[in-house]
Write a structure and sequence with these properties.
Layout (H helix, E strand, L loop, with lengths): L4 E4 L6 E7 L4 E6 L3 E6 H8 L3 H12 L5 E6 L9 H4 L2 E6 L8
This protein binds zinc ion (ZN).
Zinc ion binds next to loops.
Length: 103
């Protein structure tokens, strides 16, 4: 059984919980507002300095993915600096069953 930790949701700031997946490089959050999403360490750091509107947009996307889908938020390498932080983040719905599980 994976261990769950409490933390403020990086998208909306609500009291959420997460467990660690993919050799602790990712957190799978369960937020009462945004439902489930998975986020990498680098993407989480970037979100901290991102404007609130970007976090809201991603939160909105996480809410609307549907029960079988989990929003996967990552920061791809080879980013274009001119595009700004938000462009450097990718968030795509991924089927829940195909995500790396919490351990
Ligand atoms: Zn949230």
């Amino acid at each position: 059984m994976a261990e769950h930790y409490k933390k403020a949701c990086p998208l909306c700031g609500s009291d959420a919980q997460y467990c660690l997946a993919d050799y602790k490089k990712r957190k799978q959050f369960n937020c009462p507002e945004c439902s489930d999403f998975q986020i990498t360490d680098t993407a989480e750091k970037k979100l901290e300095s991102a404007p609130a509107a970007w976090r809201q947009a991603i939160a909105e996307k996480a809410k609307t993915t549907g029960a079988d889908w989990v929003l996967d938020i990552s920061a791809p390498s080879g980013q274009n600096k001119e595009a700004g932080g938000y462009q450097a983040l990718s968030c795509e719905p991924v089927l829940r069953v195909s995500l790396p599980p919490c351990r």
